[in-house]
């Protein structure tokens, strides 16, 4: 057992255009709340969250990024070291969907295939959808990434988004194997010891 | 220990204490008469429990059965062997729980029908209230606890409040320092170490070269605030790139809170148009004043078509007026010194006053009637003007030839012929001015060598990159040759026929 590092830590970076709901997804996941007042993220915000998944626990570092155009050149530097990239678009905004190719390209440029990417269509609660689920799905298939549609406002699929992302981490399998190994080591072999016969049968009276 | 209930059972081997008055035969008789209370008074286990010597906190259900020991095997008769053992409750069942209300005894029996042993077995039944894990509730509890822990952790992350995320520097003037204060207040629960991060788009600098941040690191204790000065100063080194539109007054600073987030701070603004950092080619086309042309459009003026277009908007002349012989800014500065400064000592080394220099630069750019200030301030502005030119009066393309020719007056004169007309005119104009100063050397104490040294450097200014890429020794050799080149013109009469 690794006592120095009892929990696996993973960095998750959130990418996507301005006002697609990156911060709202994080807020829903962290605090199960939603703030309908929009406030732009000016920089890179950082929060930690422990996630319990059936039999294991992971510690997630959530990196929220600024989506505003003027900050675009600065954001890719923050993809470094991330195990998971969540690329968000707004299903009611086709420009935000068009931009996902570039974001995913940025992730691939930095991390190659050594990363789990989740394409996330947010704002499922809105009526005026312009990007169909099929369109999102086929884009995800084309780019070989996971696809989820969410609503940070209603909370729909938010937990699933994180669960799917974490379960897709290749290192989770490795950890599982390690755990199996550990379990074997933990087993104490009990073999009966032959005692002198007369002692066991004689009553001390 | 990780359990709630203890049931302790077995052949505990406690006996009924015999004595002279309480013989084995009496015990057997009382047992057969079911006089258990009398016997229990002599029970060793109950005695030890009362004295706190064993099983102090354990309870035993009331005994309402005959002693379970010792019988002749295969019978229900008391021991008839030679040892003649006194009957005893050797076989016992005790129980314990932190809260005894969770455990209720339902029966405590002996089983005399079992005859294979010299003991009779005992049994007890209990009703227990057992805690069970409700999966949903467990999940909810874990979520609640982890939520609290995460919240606690996230609250220890550095938190600050800024007075502004955006700083706008409007109408910045060339060489006039402007400062705004970024205030950072620590609103978190622990001290914050802050710093600015270099970014790749700025060649790993923390800010553009014309923007300075002081301090660029700070430790802020909780509830305290630091003021950080953001100072914009666009000087000769940077003004050309503004005029050429390769730079603009825009920057994004990355403020990092150690162990926490990064905050982007935007700096924006505009530089007022200026003749400084422009080119001679451009300036001879500016008949009006530079400030009337937006920054960056000055560049277009050197192409006459754009000039026509620009001027037509001004409703004055439809066709471009002929270019000036030399930039009027250069003319005004030199003329002022000819009028007022011929006898001044240390004209180019005094430097004047910064407030005067600023006014003089403004007058040049805005077309103010008169230059106001001491001759020293005007002289300093003249040097700045020459030094900040995009391409110096002696164009960089001929610097090497100038240096090669520096020992030979005739060759020096020939290099002059290779310079573009406007450059040659300005050069001759300045040389004429310097010679005029030398005519007054009695009063102003200047000599040709000193002037050649001061002006050699500004008329043949090296680029920043050139200065940085060469070592000190090479640079001083270069400067010496440049000085010699200019000296030839001051010492000899090489500019005849050039106007």
Automatic annotation (TrEMBL), chain A:
SUPFAM superfamilies: P-loop containing nucleoside triphosphate hydrolases. Keywords: GTP-binding, Nucleotide-binding. InterPro entries: P-loop_NTPase, Rab, Small_GTP-bd, Small_GTPase. It comes from the Eukaryota. Residues 175-200 are annotated as: Disordered. CDD domains: Rab6. GO terms for molecular function: GTP binding; GTPase activity. Gene3D superfamilies: P-loop containing nucleotide triphosphate hydrolases (3.40.50.300). PANTHER family: RAS-RELATED PROTEIN RAB (PTHR47977). NCBIfam families: small_GTP (TIGR00231). This is Uncharacterized protein. It comes from Amphimedon queenslandica (Sponge). The gene is 100638596.
Automatic annotation (TrEMBL), chain B:
GO terms for biological process: phosphatidylinositol dephosphorylation; signal transduction. Its main location: membrane. GO terms for molecular function: phosphatidylinositol-4,5-bisphosphate 5-phosphatase activity. Keywords: Cytoplasmic vesicle, Endosome. One of its GO terms (cellular component) is phagocytic vesicle membrane. This is Rho-GAP domain-containing protein. The lineage of its organism: Eukaryota, Metazoa, Porifera, Demospongiae, Heteroscleromorpha. It comes from the Eukaryota. InterPro entries: Endo/exonu/phosph_ase_sf (IPR036691), Ig-like_fold (IPR013783), IP5 (IPR046985), IPPc (IPR000300), OCRL-1_2_ASH (IPR048869), Rho_GTPase_activation_prot (IPR008936), RhoGAP_dom (IPR000198), RhoGAP_OCRL1 (IPR047078). The gene is 100634871. It is found in: Cytoplasmic vesicle, Phagosome membrane; Early endosome membrane. Pfam families: Exo_endo_phos2, OCRL-like_ASH, RhoGAP. Gene3D superfamilies: Endonuclease/exonuclease/phosphatase, Immunoglobulins, Rho GTPase activation protein. Residues 313-498 form the Rho-GAP domain.
